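To: structure desk
From: M.T.
Subject: fold request, one chain
Message: Could you run this one when you get a chance? Sequence is below, nothing fancy, just the single chain.
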Amino acid sequence: MIQVLELTWESFEKEYRKIGGFLFEDSRSEPGYTLCDWYFDLQEEIEILYTEKEPVAETIKANLSKLDDYREKGFYPCGALFFELGYFFIEGLDLNKSPLAEGTPLLQYSVYKQKKRIKYPNPSSLNLGKLELKNITVLWDKETYKERFEKTREALLLGESYELNLCFPVSISIEGDLFLYYHSLKAKQKTKYSVYYPFLDTRTLSLSPELFFEVKGNEIQTEPMKGTNLRGLTSKQDKDNKTILQSSAKERAENVMITDLYRNDLGRIAKQGTVQVTDLFIVKGLETVWQMVSKVEAKLKNPFAWFPVLKALFPSGSVIGAPKKRSFELLRELENTNRGLYTGSLFVSEMLDGAPWIRSNVSIRTLNLKKDENLWTGNYGVGSGITVLSDAEAEYKECLSKLKFITNPNLPSFEILETLRYRNGHYFLKDLHLERMEETANRFGYPFSKQKAESTLKTLTDGSDDTLRIRLLLGERGEFRGETFSFSNPKIRPTIRLGLADHPIDSNDLFLYHKTTNRSFYQKMLEECKTKSIDDCILFNRDGRILETNIRNLFLKKGKFWFTPTLETGGLPGVFREALIRKGWVKETVLFKSDLLDADEILVGNSLRGFERVDLIL
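Reply: Done. Structure tokens follow.
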């Protein structure tokens, strides 16, 4: 049993800066917190580079034995396996006859004397200081990619491979504190297999969502990840994108191909009859993409040792293709460059209760950087699996989507928000409010318990006969809190002076589709309304489609029918609006500015105030 020490972020940061070390972290299992295995107190650092002058294969094998020896003696060997080690491990390839240049990195490892497991709250953006991505340059433009894609497809059509994971580099320069930069990336991509690894004059920042393998005693588990689709902006888009990935023949074919490859690889080191697929085609949500994952498990026929396990498994089939040997050779020809640490692996190892415990990620979403004057520079790799069913345009787009967690700004700390009306002992449209809150929680990865939400609402109004406005808030750790205010509608309803916004919205702003405390855009627009002596304004997108107002939904009557704008390109789907749509009283449709002038009647409304009349100021 591992004892977990709880620290504040501030105390963890202060202590880490003092003693350093290797961090293997899980920021996904417990929302709002990071579970960290921290290896420190350095014994030695070893780097193995390719050279033609010495028998480097023997050097690698000897050092893998050293990793086993150190672990068995109670030390903590941790390190990095570079993709080019495939020339050593893949059967039928010869490292001495490889095209590698002198000095190509193959293996880095550090041996630590101490380890502790800690838990700390994830830092807010205010704790991360000034960080700047100075340069990000995609080194293959679309035409270059399409040219390499066609050559890849030719090889597939000729039957040289069933699948090829075509990758290319992106050049990156960063200015600032890399330890804080790593944590800013971790805030944007919460994974179970993140790594921060300082080694000599390099720093590795890995936000990998993919487990290569984990060994506990004689049990080994792998989780091949293959199949990707973007997260949606609206809850509906998000669910649709997940369904598209789950049902995609192309993505499922890729996934099952790699799963079969893992079954075959594990069969070389497993006890007969113990290899089994325990999960297939599971779709997991990351911040920017949906990923398809399967799980393969087995029992080792011999006690764990690095050389036979890596000989069977390395590199991960999910980042090469099948069959392994020919796919590896083809990719080297097609990519014509070293991948380096990208698609290799970062690992930690120790003895736990007298048995080996080893964890190793597939180093995707990973930066390997070196200091260059005042900048940290290096390459970041992106890629995707190509089959004969693949489309060049879609694959290139998928590759670029994997840059989003670097290029997207850090989200501010926020809570998910619902504003409810309480009157005569009842909450108006409570179930729809909680349904919307749960959908937003799912999109942002916040834990949601309807039972806890109901309990909080009951506590806020227990015994009250007043009419109240209730703000129900949900934090990233799944905790609810509430704010209570007196509320009454005036006997004579005011007419809302309503105009048009001065400029279109940004349809890519995720926060326009979900109700949270991050409402800076809406607040800014309401301030602009005051300068024009209007109460609220109608938002519109770059195509001129009208959407909602800042705090209300919009309803237009034409003839006998009422319509409300679709909100696929921006705008918060109100609970009051949703109730009207479900009853069939209002129909969603695409509406433009001209429809405002043609309307027989215009109303606005929300669940707090109901319908309100409009004086349109254009």
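Reply (cont.): The chain is about 30% helix and 35% strand. Let me know if you need anything else for the meeting.
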